[in-house]
Amino acid sequence: MSIASSVRRFRRKARHLGAARNGNVAIIFALAIVPVFAFIGAAIDYSRANTARSAMQAALDSTALMLSRDLAQGTITSTQIGTTAQNYFSALYTDKEAGSISVSATYTAATTGKGPTIAVNGSASIPTDFMKLVGLPNVNFNASFTTSWGADLLRVALVLDNTGSMANYNKIGALQTAAKNLVTQLSALAQNNGDVYISVVPFEIDVNVGTANVGANWLRWDRWDPNMYQYWTQSWCSDSGWTSTLAQCQDHGYTWNHAVGSPNHPQWNGCVTDRDQGYDVNATAPTSTTNSTLFIADQDPYCPAAAILPLTYNWSPVNSTINAVSPNGATNQTVGCSGAGSPSCSNRR
Fold it and tell me: Which residues, listed in sequence order, are joined to residue 177 by a DSSP beta bridge?
C-alpha cells in the first residue's frame, strides 16, 4: 500500500471517530460517579450522626430530669450536679460510634418569680466513612436540655394553736415536734439561701406582733386600754364573760365602762386582734386613713408568749420560736364569718 493511500485511509478513520457518539454515556457516567458516590456517602454519614445525636438528646433529657429530682429531694447538693450528670449520662448514652464526648451541667438558683433550673449540654463527633474522601473526617453534633421546677419560691407560714386546750394530753409538745420536723424537711429543699422561707405565727384570740412594732402605721389604737378587765376584781365590761379587753368587749356588742384617757403606747403588750369585717378575711393592705383596715391593738392578758416570727431562712430562730410557744387563752372561733347582723356574726368571739 502506497503512502498516499495510507494517509487517505487514516483521514477517513479519523473523520469516522470524530463523528461517533457510542461511547459518550460511559464517559459521562465515569465523570459523574464521583459526586454521586460522594452524595450517597454523605447521606449515610449524616444518618449515622443524626442517630447518635438523637440518642444523646434522649440521654440528656433523662439526665436533667433525674438531676432536678435529686436536687429537689435533697439527695444531692448543687456542687454535686456536674459529677452526677456525668455519671447519669455515661450510663444512659450507649452509642459506640461517637467519640470526643463532652457533657456539662449548669445549675441556676431560683429568683423571684422563677424556680431553679438545670441546663445539661452535650457534644460529640463520629468518624466519617465517605465524607473523609472530600476532606471531612468527622461530623460534629451537640444537644441540650433545660429543666425547671418550683416556679415560685417556697413560702410557708406555720400558724400554731397556742390556746389553753393545747395543754391537754401534751398536745403542745406534739405540735412542737411536728412543726420542727416539718422545718427540717422544708429547709433540706433549699439549695441556696432564699429558696425556702418560713414564718411562725403562734395564735389564740390574739397574736403577739412584738412591742417593737409600737410605732407601726398599721396599728389601730382607738379600741385599746392598757387596763384589762379582771372579772374577779373589776367589772368594766357590761358583760362578765371572756371580754377582758376594750376591743373584745366592744366586739361582743357590750359597753366598756372604764375611762381610757390617754395612756402611753409603750404600755402595750404587743398583741393585736383581727381587723373589722370583712378585712379579717382578706389581704387588703392597711391604710392609715381607714381604721377598718388596721390591726387593732389589744391588751389581751393571755397574749401568746412567743411573738410572730416574720419569713426567714435562718432556721435557728424558727425552731426557737416553736420551742417558746405556750398554751394559754381561748380560740376565736368565728373569725371570718360574713353577713353582719346574723346570729353567728353578732358575737364574734
Answer: none
Q: How confident is the model at residue 278 (pLDDT cuts 50, 70, 90)?
A: confident
Report the candidate in 247, 220, 239 with the shortest Cα–Cα distance to residue 301: 247
Q: What type of residue sits at position 131?
A: M
pLDDT at 25: 57
Q: pTM, whole model, 2 decimals?
A: 0.57
Question: All 3 cell numbers of residue 2?
Answer: 502506497
Comparing 78-82, 245-249, 320-324, 329-333, the range with the smallest average pLDDT is 329-333
Nearest-angstrom CA–CA distance, 139 and 44:
12
267 sits in the region (left: phi over 0; alpha: psi -120 to 50; else beta) called alpha
Nearest partner of 222 among 183, 172, 188, 256, judged by Cα: 256
Mean pLDDT within 143-149: 87
Distances (CA, A) of 77 to 80, 287, 321: 5, 44, 28
In this model, does residue 331 exceed pLDDT 70?
Answer: yes
- Return the domain boundaries, the chain: 3-148, 154-346
Residue pair 59/119 in contact by the 8 Å Cβ criterion:
no
Cα separation values, 305 from 248, 271, 302, 325, Å:
19, 10, 8, 6
DSSP string, 99-147: EEEEEEEEEE--BTTB--EEEEEEEEEEE-SSGGGGT--EEEEEEEEEE
Residue 18 confidence (pLDDT): 55
Mean pLDDT of all residues belonging to the chain? 83
Task: Report residue 344's pLDDT band, with 50, 70 and 90 as the boundaries.
Answer: very low
Strand, coil or helix: 40: helix
Taking the C-alpha atoms of residue 200 and residue 184, their distance in angstroms, rounded to an integer, is 14
Alpha-carbon distance 282 to 293, whole Å? 10
